Amino acid sequence: MTHHYSGTNFGFPRGDARVNLTDLFAFPKPGNAGKSIIIMNVHPSHGLNPPGPTTTEPFAPEALYELRVDTNGDMMADIAYRVRFSRNGIEAMTATVRRVEGPEAAGKSEEGKVIIQGAPVSMGREARITESGAYRLFAGWRSDPFFFDVMGAQNNMQFTGTDFFGDKDVCSMALELPVSDIGGGVSLNLWHRSLLWINGGWVQADRGARPTQTPFMTSAEKEAYLDGEPAQDERFVPMFAHVLEHTGGYTPEGAKAAAKSLLPDVLPYDPKMQSAYPGNGRRPTDDSKDVFLTVYNGRLTWDKTGPHTDLLNEFPYLGAPHSPRTFEAKMPQSKEMVAPTP
Question: Which among 110, 106, 108, 112 has a CA at the least distance from the CA of 86?
Answer without folding.
Answer: 110
